Amino acid sequence: MEKPYFSFYYHPITNCTPHHQPVTVEKVHQFITGRYFKYRTNRLRSIQDPKETKRFKSIAFDFVTFSGLFSYRNIQNLITHSGLMTIDLDHIPEVIPDHSPESLKKEILQSQEIETALCFVSPRGDGLKIVVEIDLQNNTHQEWFEALSNYFEMIWHIKPDPSGSDVSRPCFLPYDPECYINPKYLKS
Questions:
Q1: Dihedral sign of CA atoms 51, 60, 104, 152 in order
Q2: Cβ(27)–Cβ(16) below 8 Å
Q3: pLDDT block averages, 10 residues each, the chain of length 188
Q4: pTM score, two decimals?
Q5: What is the C-alpha separation between 38 and 13, in angstroms, rounded?
Q6: Contact 69, 7 (CB under 8 A)
Q7: C-beta separation of 170 from 63 below 8 A
Q8: Listed residue (68, 65, 36, 67) closest to 179, CA to CA
Q9: Sequence-distant (≥ 6) Cβ neighbours of residue 134 within 8 angstroms
């Protein structure tokens, strides 16, 4: 299997020029499970004011565009699609009262319906980021997003963040030592 590559960006979120070196699922897993993002993630989760939380995340967190390689972060500058899509599930305990991000993650990883590449707790700690494989030979990015959104609504009664339909959507990288990686993305 050829491993997908995608763009990595240093903070702040206003940075639209990717780092010159593309990254892989395995590399992002190493970032997320390592200590690099730990301080920022703990700091973000200690902030009580929602406006300050949003501001801090936008200035302090590095991010990736899991869906592709870009020369500049916008759809017109997509070099190649990675075959991956991010599903962002926000505020899980509020939306599904009997679930935590961790318990929902276990259920999602047991599902045979989707091929999960990565799954990790969001920077704020109350959501999940699920990076899934999609086959662009059969459907467009938008069609896949709609199908996956319907799937998550039908099975878990949670609607993914609609911004995931944007190929150039950034995904902030937090610290999560329990981040799941599909073994096929590890070096053999």
A1: positive
A2: no
A3: 89 97 97 96 97 97 98 97 97 93 96 94 97 95 97 96 96 98 89
A4: 0.95
A5: 18
A6: yes
A7: yes
A8: 36
A9: 83, 84, 85, 141, 144
